[in-house]
Protein 1
Amino acid sequence: MVDHSKQDLKGGETLKTYNKQLDDFFQDSAQTSPASTLNHDTGVQSGGYSPVGSFGLAEGYVNDQLQKFISELLRQSVSLMGWKLDIKLKFKENHDVMVDIDMSIPPGFFGMPSTDKDLLTYHITSKMEVLSTPHQGYLIFKLPPNGTLFKRANSDIPPVAIHTELLSDAVAIARGYLAALSGDMAGFDAAAALLQKQMAALKLQMDQLNKERDRKEYMKLQAQFRLFELQKEATEIQRGQFKDIAEQVHTQMFSFVGDKELNLNNLLAARGNSLVLKVNLEQITPPNIYKLVAGIRLKNIQVEDRDGHKELYFYLEGPKAKKKV
Amino acid sequence: MTTKTIWLLCLLSPACTLPRARAEVPAPLRPDLVLRLNQELFETQGVQEALDAGKRRLDPGFHDAFLDFRNDGIHLKFTQSLLWKEFEFDIILRLLWTGRNTFEAHLQKFDVSGKLLLFHFKVDLKTLKAQLFQFFKLNIQVVLLDAIDLKYVGNTADQSLVFRGTVNVGKLVPLPAAADLDLSGIQTQDRLLVLELARRP
């Protein structure tokens, strides 16, 4: 077993260290929580686990916050590409979290010209098992291999299961986008540099041609050169747009988690069919309590009100108390 | 009812329940965020050290204090030395949410060993309440730092009222997204102190 309590993930942690620690975690068997319920009046939980401290978030509150900060953020950033996105979470009593995503994409998004004005609307439903690393603030969203269903909205065609092993590829593709949202424009700079290099190579080819004799070939290269030139200009414009969005993202994220140093790539990782979200517990728990509940454990607990209303709470729990409740 | 009458009643009955003024409490809101703190947090070495360091604020005769969260309130057991005799106090302090970010602590019930002797020495109820306040404040300060501000109000006409608490939600939950939350409930359960937060209506 790896002793996660000795791992220091603060300060100058590198992505390499972070990944190593996640590897260690995945080598250990991920802990699962037994199903449990909470009696609101007595505070007694079934399942026999009594944490030293816990922090519960109501489903309704989480979704409202998601709408307020995260969805708004995504809407702003994807609207540049003409997308529409809506995300909603549903807690289940067996500790699964259902994610419903409504996504609309313009038909021309995939690079092919289209005259169709209607957006392509899809509905994605995913069942996630939420786990946590034993001693540090990592939340692991584990997707069953065939647990993500993809469906065309307003269609009778049955949903298609997406194999979630492809998640790593999706996150790898999204890395540049996440970096740009975090304010790192290196991806745009690299794209501009590549276009510049390709343009230089084309210019060399064009110089070697005889303008009159190889007129047809010359015109072809000239068109290609102009296309690269426009692409480079577009990259510059996109870079500026993303810079503005990154500033908005930073403001939004700061107002949400209070994180001054934002790097979305450091918050997100993928391992097989698991998506890993790094959460800084110190930012959401009282300072003195954090030291005592640094090892977290997650569970969904259904709480029944005195008036019979049922609400599911997503609990972050500290280590087991010595004395049983 | 005067303090002395209450004491007299307490001496005649096995355990004393103090009459409590009915506070106008707004209807509780459904919590959006719940913080459940196990009693173990109050039994750490840090708390013990702070209690030892803060003992000068307590009466020198006040010792062997023990705090226990139960469904019916906070059970406090302690020993009070008076000259050659030691008296064991068994007290129930109930927390009552009174409105936005505020709560009150009421002395619900207490039992004292060696009552007759205690009567002779005329131990004042106000002194007892002040002791309880100081002891609870020391515990809260160590575990929750300055997220909860406690003020002694034991001198009012309400014989059961001991102190009022005001919660600073920003210090309790440092997440900026939680800025629109208020304390909407506080209660004790078996070995648990439960703080409930809800969005402002």
Note: Residues 1-16, 28-47, 292-296 of chain A have pLDDT under 50 and may be disordered.
Protein 2
Amino acid sequence: MAKFVKTKRAFLIGTGIVGGALVLGTTLAWRRVANAQNFKPPVKDGETAFNAWLKIMPDSTVVVQVPRQDMGQGIYTTLAMLVAEELDADWGKVRAEQSQINPVYGNIVALGDSAPPPMKSAMLAMARVIGLQLTGGSTSVRDGWEPMRTAAASARAMLLGAAAAKWNVPVTELTIEKSIVKHAASGKSAPFGEFAQAAATLTPPSSVTVKAPKDWKLLGTSPARLDVVEKTLGKAQFGIDVRLDGMLYATVKHIPYVSGHLQEVRWKNGTPPRDALHLARGDNWLAVVATSYWSAKKALDEAELVGGGDTGTVLSSEQLAAQYNEVLDGKNDGVLDAGVAHLKPLRRTFGEHGNAEKAIASATTAQRIDAAYSVPFQAHAPMEPMNCTVRIAGEGKDGKVDVWVGNQAPTVLQWLAAGNVGVPSENVTIHTPYLGGGFGRRVDLEVIRQALACAKLTGGKPVQLIWSREEDIAHDAYRPAISARMSAALDDKGGLLAWHHRMVGPSVSKSVFARMNPLAAGDFPPDVTNAEGAAHLPYALAHFKCDHAQVDLPVPLGFWRSVGNSYNAFFVETFIDEIAVALKKDPYLFRLELLKDQPRFARVVDAAASAAGWSSALPKGWGRGIALAESFKSIVCQVVDVEVVGKDIKVRRVVSAVDCGTALHPVNVKAQISSAAIYGITAALKSQITLKDGQVQQRNFDTFPLLKMAECPQFETVIVNSGAALGGIGEVGVPPIAPALGNAIFAATGKRLRGLPFVL
Amino acid sequence: MPTALTLNLAPVTLNAPDDKPLLWALREDANLVGTKFGCGIAACGACTVQVDGVAMRSCSVPLSFVAGKQVTTIEGITAIGPNAVQKAWIEHQVPQCGYCQSGFIMATTALLEKTPDPTDADIDAAITNLCRCGTYPAMRLAIKKAAQLKKAGG
């Protein structure tokens, strides 16, 4: 314990001198490594653990400890590449293994990103102490970048030290090629696994140097993903595939409303069917435990859940839109009626320079441009329905809890399960298999609470709780509906002078944290995700302001792939297009004009326009649109070609350029850009969540349709390696796709669509 | 009532209600979890298997329907494979989260049996499964590659 306290102090002192210099960055990474040297993951099959991040087997297989979750973004592969590169390991003998839960694996970058700039260093300090493992915010590689490479370089030095001692040669004369240690002068060579045991007993070096990019052999190439073979053979294990002796199954039903409480359960025949072995009940749900999912589902179909509340039972999407407009009109700063939003809107300015309001107010009608936009609620809809398997053995301090669940935050789960069951957190084991899609959905804890409640009833038998797709769509934690009004003023020379972005909507972070722990739900610090992608723009604007009015809604909200960027890019990049049209300027060249002091952005826009053949002719009925967005420290520009036939919108081609600093696995970078764009096209053309009388009107893929193969456009993606600091990749292809598509529809039809999903 | 069928070339008897969907009989009673639950209404295709060589969405087929029939799941393909589709899938690095992939592989395997050289239109018409990760671009290339491999005897 004393050691842990000391380490925490060291981190706090370390963060007190954050200055951004490269050397300091290495120092901080080194502190994480030094801490990591003290934590060794459990070993089996002759493995030797070097530090928290890697083990080596006698046959030289490298087992990389990955504390992030793979939900399709390929993070097992990219993080393993960081380690393999520094070890010069043979990629064919590298495996990734989900790490245990330990503060050494905390995602420091994710928490740092979540803080407003003035609070960032305090948040980073706290992040190092808490050590929260979570996968989100496109942070995994950025966070693992220094500690994992440094840990591997440290292990490499130890392996070479052991080889030098055994062969009695200077360590400086040794090299590693594809896991083989070589001494050129003597011709000696041996796989590094032979030295692993001896090497691990050596004192780790006090400093190491990681490779310069010019010396990389693996990073920047696209080796086979570690998960593709098992996923292709049907052997990959997802949470829903867990099978345990004596396991029971359960399923859950919520009250029909998005909020409120369960008051009464009415069974079709007066009592629960015999197949229902146990019933678990929560604030707004009922679960049935049975010997099969199918029989649990059939039993639960006989239950009518009566309940609700004042607010959730009346909310409709139309009414919400009207309320939003009143807030944007500056009215209704008191208690809003009909219980839509209970609190006075919290009005905040997220970015400002110059005096945009004054410049816009003094503009002539001819110099002024205004437009109003909106986006609806969206569901995540990962293909693997929500599920969680729990086994509880014993109770109190001797009790043990095992939880199998695809999740994005195992540390939080461990706390939750320990508190919920009443056992020490070290007695809780979280097993994280592959996630059948995440997109932010698996940050939510409700399914885990429900599975814990079921497992408490079964006398130690494990229970697998599965949500039906209907429950998933109708009871998600949604990307919020947002409305925005944009105003711009032009100068006398026809240039863009002032920009004012005003919007209204709830805070996603507040809703997420409130559901994790009501004590954590506050209005401070400001939720930076509200205005991400809107608070700071790359464009040259003399006067700029971004305002947000935050309201509380009785609807659970969640982080949805790219979060605030998903709607802000739509508002910003559609409005830029409208201004270009008003100025009779080419939308691509207009953006370049506004980016004259932003060469990194301009290069990405040029790359996309050039690859797309921006000025090339299109068939009749087609249109081409462009949009640019920076998110998660990466820059993406997309050019969309669309064909419009009557009211039918067919996306034909998407050309993207991406600058994520350096593409570490280019094939996966391209796969993620098209993946995210398809996710965004589904939201722009196909699906939405609407509310009527407090109920979600969509239930399954019939009413919440996804883009299909037949509707999928052609993709081309250009990678721009600027060498800038690394950016994220899993989400960054979402933000620009909706505006690029909307701008293309305008080019094809002359109709400006200002709400999603697009309907002609 | 027990249902006798041929599952992945082996005769089996599953003790489950007649109206239990084949999907759940496979996952719970036959312990074959490669076939996935996605929607329960035959909309997504994650549960696609072959019944007497025809691709079917097992969430919407009662167990009684397959009495005496040949059912093939992803495990059955893998046991004698990997087949041309799986080889092409690996070559084109198709899966992302991977959850829907068994269903796509089963649907594609059935397509290539009937249509050895599918056009884009054939693919669009036959492969109507849903992939939320959007692996369609790589998948289309892999389907065409699988057709080539299959013709070459792979």
Note: Residues 135 and 408 of chain A are 5 Å apart (CA to CA).
Protein 3
Amino acid sequence: MRTRPQISQNIASIARVRVGARGAENPVKSLNSLDLYDVRGLLTEDEQMVQDSVARFVDGKVLPIIGECFEQARFPKELIPEIASLGLLGSSIQGYGCAGLNGVAYGLICQELERGDSGLRSLVSVQSSLVMYPIFTYGSEEQKQRWLPAMARGDAIGCFGLTEPHGGSDPSNMKTVAKKKGSDWVLNGAKMWITNGSIADVAVVWANTDDGVHGFLVEQGMQGFDTPEVHHKMSLRASVTSALYFDNVHVPEANVLPKVKGLKGPLSCLTQARYGISWGVIGAAQACLKDVLGYTQTRELFNRPLNHNQAVQLRLAEMARQITLAQLLSLRLGRLKDQGEMQPAQVSLAKWNNVRMAINIARDARDLLGGAGITTEFCPIRHALNLESVITYEGTETVHQLVIGKEITGVDAF
Amino acid sequence: MKILVGIKRVVDFSVRVQVKKDGSGVNTDGVKLGINPFDEIALEEALRIRERGTQAEVVAVSIGPAEVQPQLRTALAMGADRAILVETGEVLQPLMVARVFHELVKRENADLVILGKQAIDDDSNQTGQMLAALWDRPQATFASKVELKDKTLMVTREVDAGLETIEIDLPAVITTDLRLNTPRFVKMPDIMKARSKPLQVLKLEELGVTAAPKLEVTSYAPPPQRVGGKKVEDVTALVATLRQRGIL
């Protein structure tokens, strides 16, 4: 007991000397707890403006209602017009009523939306990366004219059908088939875990044909096309998840995506969406850290605030470290994307790392909140539950690890 | 008509402001900066006047170092037609800002100047009034409703007694209160469009305005920590305590 004050005095005096020595030309600044490396400082003025605008929308319109939406398993459909008018749907597309932003800006949109809720970010991911992107990239001019402006305005919602009830990690074992009959195609089969399925006006459905996998634009109301909603979810409760059933659905030739054949079609879409997810989950993690920083500052236990304990500080510091790494990873990935250099394996690494980072932070933040952490008053439990989906969809963690394994060994172990 | 709108860069409203340890100012290191909320309301009102069908050019004006350009770009993305930055490293004080606006009003032949009633950093609440005096034109401060009728404005003001509606002739100065409107969100396509909108940079000296600060700030201090209340046993103790504090 006697030596303790002595030691701490020594440490304090060392600290003073260091601060003094640095002080002359490198003054000590206070940092942003949610952005320790000032990654925002690496963004262009336009990118910062994008982030600020979406952040303000999320603060003003999403955060006040999202806890209740999650609790009631209600998708806040009323937000779609505003999301659309902000230009968040298909924001990377040039023309067709879209903003034409770069990849980093799209990432920031995802980050701010997911700071609100993964379900809302999922809506925008699916609409932008999984539906508008393939129509823009692989569609005919008529398909683009028909769907893209309407989807940018939020007048039409899209969904993406690749995963099937028997599993999602092995898309080459696709059982949904399309057979040519006269001038039409006839679709049979089922898709599962489809975000936006029941509210979609158009589904980009991937199906096997005699000539390999093709993409079909299946429209709501086509005979034999059914989209029942998945209920009893404990995750993404503020988002619509559905099954898609095809019972002899006749799809005209004009609804086939003409410019792509094979699994590279859907996989290229997933690369876009996974890229956005790697940014999005940073927002979820930041929201959790923010909540828990506030709580541990005011909550007193054993006559001192929680954050006066080393055990608590270690956990908070770990969260800040993980968020910083993820931010830098995604920003570098975004810059590569905007140079046209981004590779799918790099996207896999970012999706794997960042979603794992976010789910660990959300769970630990939930724990630090104690009993208070089990209601929707604080966001970590909602984010933790949402991230159970996010770590599964768009390639499970294992799938991404195997993608990296294949990249560095040259051996396909799938 | 031509509408000038003042855009001041301040510490973002969501940031908890910290006073520097030596009391020389407020810490702005690593702190998010944004447009003064009352100025956003001013810009929104100018845009609404234009959108209601009045032919109007909306010019966003800021005074300060080159670093305030992002706030002007944001104003352009919200919908201002062009922007003017009066560049200076000097400390801004209300009279100087009013003089700058007066010079710009003359140069631009402005019909209306809309300013925030105050900035959330120094809470001066003087610039609009000073500008009206320098310009010798009517002022409508603390506006919560603005209606333009030809060459006159009907302005509802938030005053201590409630609401007061006045009619003033253009050209004029309006300062905005919180309930005038809710500023719009910046839309993604408009961020791209804002790049190509003109942003003119003038030096303070070009306008013939000298800083010559009239006010001297001696020190900054955070508000005292709140102390919890005290419970007394009964009415007698209450009266005694109030007497003791000199309240009764």
Note: Residues 213 and 263 of chain A are 6 Å apart (CA to CA).
Protein 4
Amino acid sequence: MKNSLLGMIFVCLLSSCAYDYDMGDSFIDEPNRLVVNSFLNPNHPMDIYFYTTLKMDSGYWFKAANGVRVLLKEDETILYDAICPDTLLHLDYYPVTGKNYTIEAVLTGYETITAATSIPKTISCEAKVEKVKQFYWNDYRVDLSAFQFPPANEESLWITAYKVFKEDEISQCHTIYVNNILIDKVNQEVGLDETLGSITHNSFMRIKNKNLPKLDKIQFFPGINYEQMQVQIKLIAASKEYDQYNRSLYQQQNMIIYDDDISSVFFQPVQVYSNIRNGLGIFAGWNEVNYFLDIPE
Amino acid sequence: MKHLFSFILLIFSCFELSAQLIAREDSLAVDSLNKVINLSEIVVHARNKNIDSRGLGNMRINMKQLRVSPLFFGERDIIKTLQFLPGVSAGMEGSSQLNIRGGTNDQTLYLMDDVPVYNQNHTFGFFSMFNSDALQSADIYKGGIPSVYGDRLSGVAAISLKDGDFNQYKHSLSLGLLAGTAASEGPILKDKLSYLFTARRSFLDLLYNGVMALASEGGEGMAMIAFYDVNGKLSWKINPKSKLSWQIYTGYDDMYGLNKVSKDYEKYSEKAGFGWKTTMTSLRFTSQLNPGLFLSSTLYYTQLNNFNNFKSEMNYEGVKNTLENNTSSLLHEIGWRNSLEHKLNDATTLTYGLEATRQIYTPNYMYKIINSNKTTYDAAGLKLHTVSASVYDEYRYQDWLFSAGIRAALYNNTEKTKFVVEPRLKINRYIGEKNKLMLAYDRMHQPVHSINEMNYNVRQDFWIPFNETILPTSQQISLGWKNYTTRDLTFSVEAYWKQMENLIMIKNMENYLDFHSDYETGKGKSMGAELMVEYSKNKINAWLSYTLSQSKRQFEGKFYPFKYDAPHDISAFGSYIIRQKGKNVNTLSLNLQYKTGYPYYVPEVGYPSMGLSALPDAYDMINNAGVIDYIPAYPNVRLKNYFRTDINFTMEQPMKHGSRTWQFSLLNATARQNPYAVYKKDGKYKAFVLIPFLPSISFTRNF
């Protein structure tokens, strides 16, 4: 009897729950907006996507936008000044490191949007992978050191790693064991690996701008398989816009509640960064350096 | 002729006669009595009130109230009781915040025996750091704030610790659902020197870790909550008119995961978590220098350490390695607070205040320790020096009481110095014996603020001093009418209008701290009317409060409702002694609260994202990164109206030595689904309910 009573109390304690919710009337009438999405990278030709949000009886949705008049500039040079016939503006032109880019887009019935970004200089380092003894087995550790940063800029560093298999099969390392105080905790998770430690980062490591000068080396275990031929390390120099957009997007996605339990006590609305004035989306520059490291025998 | 004398009307303030009244109030009251009144007979009526409306914007809660207030996770909590007062908002359910008259929690000055407190939370704020066994009373000031108080825009919560008993020993042990408390007080030198000691500790983590330790090889631990607090106080009656007291508080909160492995050939433990540590100590001297001169002087140190910490210790085949990574936000403050009350004559009392503080902030203190070798990465500090002086004159003329004060403060953040002057005014007009009209004006400035983004649920409070010349300011006008209908029933109505300027909205906390960018300055406005009815007679103690209010913010030129704006807020409390036989007392109490739902941000619009810097399958927990939920810049909906019924039953039973108390509570007895958070999942809106139904139990043994 006593055990049942105690059990009931704890069930009640932990019975925080969720239910379907009718959100009621909204205070605000959201205007339809133009959405512009583009990441500018010197290794890729320019692709700019256009959409519009759309108010419908059942709520809001979005659709592809055609006929947007676009004025695209690289510093003071006009790259494109015409009506884009499609939802995607593709230019066989590669953005240039260090240049500034602005866009102005006009679509009838929508507010004119503007946005600006720049392409940061690359961040490089010395990279190697080696087999190290981890207690009673061996594992592969990636060592990054001797980082080279462009001086006095606003960029942050994002690092991702990929497993490269035979026949060009590639998959991203999503559990990165690393324990470095300079890495942002935004995607830090606590797991358990008795040899590697318990701190993992979900798919990327972000080092914010202010911590870059302090960064001397990073050692991490990306979970390399024996079947792999190589490990690819990508060093992303992120403009302020790219950095804030991706960080806040991760935060919003990570806030999605999966278990409807007491952990939801931490939920709160997260706004995703946008640098599109009068509109939505992102127009952000980034740069990259890739290292393809052979897995040692 | 027999005169019915009421303390309330004579000294214009509602004192409760109690053996625990602090010496200062006791002696002043009697002193006033001797000089002003010359009556043949006096009947003093001691009002048995647990909640005391003491004047315009000022209320006091006595600790007796907590004995019959519903428990929260088995804990009695003074902050939870204060949250039911008119004009005070708790914020989200389960918090330990006091958001006063449209202000935020960081705009409330928390004082414990005159020492500032910078984080009053335990365990996500589910309950506060104030251990009820150590408390004497709690005062809240919403308006008509005495000029000795400053540095916050919206109000003051002044918590008083009791002195240890000077004559007899008293001990108690309490056990709730999450924690146990031990308290002891008594004389060290009878009638000269006393001590008070309380300690509270969570026990779920201890039990769990104990079980883990017994397991042969350990394993992966689950997330744990741990907290403790310790209060100590020594009080020394130097002579009948002077007292010296020393108090110390230390509190700790940790939400962590612990892994442990213990095998023959390897042992290791890892602990990762976050939390905060609060430490305060003070030396306080009070003295009746002469019959008209009372001095109070407090020298204090207060500290807050918010930490995010990882520690590991590995021992493999005799080789030991240790690692610690720590990121902290530190706050240290040393201060000296003085007040001198000078009674010039029967009609005039002057109160002088002088205060100086030195505050050091390290918002991003990072270090790692590998096998005792420590490397510090970032220890850049911010400093704030404050000096303030105040004078407050209480002048009584016929049926009028004028209280005019001025507070001047100098704030220096090492880059800029700001000099501010804050006039304060309070006028009371007595109409007959049963009515009092009140008017107050307050001007306040705030040199420090906590740094949060759009946080409804704050886990930790990080503080920094004001930047550049942006010093938040508020002005408030309050009007009040209090009616002493009978000696058992009083009611009061207060109305206020408050304006705040130079408020800061942080858009990106990281950039705000690193580069002092990504923020907006704006304004706030709030106005409202508060009704409070108190009834206390024989076995019944009850009060009812209603707040009608509107609170707004203006940023980037747009007005929108403040996140805790609740136009209608009704609270009611009633307790009834069901059975009383000697010291055997059974009390039933009921708490009701109804309020308009808070403004909230719900995504209505979705639009395509560019994806994260990864391949689509790389995110374990993320499967919908293709669509961004557009969260508007301003609240777009109101949550459903909030209603909660709490029931409490307290049984106090005498024992051969001392007594025992059982307390049973049921929170949200009607199991109403009050939304705590609203989010979009699988294309539907969902609401999360924090407290669907929460029974609590507490046992206390006094001896």
Note: Chain B touches chain A through 93 residues (CB under 8 Å).
